[in-house]
Amino acid sequence: AAMATVFEPRETFEWRGLGSIAHSGVRLREDFAAFDAERIFTVPHQRVADPGDCQCAEVLKGLIRPPQCRLFGTACTPQTPLGALMVSSEGACAAHYRYARHAAPAAASTQVPA
Question: Which residues of 91-106 are buried (b: 16+ CB within 10 A; e: fewer)?
Fold first, then answer.
């Protein structure tokens, strides 16, 4: 109830890598306009594209896994992040780089298909 008191759905919101999705974001209600940085500072809408060969959008959509990105682990690392998914430690690429990149390969299955 507290969330609904303060926030209302946006008509549309543009998510980096996913594009515009109707009613997927929230904004502060009019009663809280004094606390709304978008209104106070007249923040312009800016589309932020991922740089060059960055494939964050494909990773977000589940079309590829992080190591399948052309830049993963070479040009794009946690020390030199190029895309949003490597910038944040919670991002899919950063987590994969830190925890799965150096993992031992999975053992081959010895089960015979039925």
Answer: bbbbbbbeeeeeeeee
Q: Do residues 15 and 21 make contact, with C-beta atoms less than 8 angstroms apart? A: yes
Residues 12, 26: Cα–Cα separation, whole Å: 9
Return d(Cα 24, Cα 42) in angstroms, integer: 21
Amino acid at position 75, single letter: A
Q: Reduced to 3 states, what is the DSSP secondary structure of residue 76?
A: strand
Are 7 and 23 spatial neighbours (Cβ–Cβ below 8 Å)? no
Cβ atoms of 48 and 65 within 8 Å: the answer is no
pLDDT in tens, 23-63: 999 999 999 999 999 889 988 877 777 788 999 999 999 99
Q: Is the pTM of this model over 0.85?
A: no
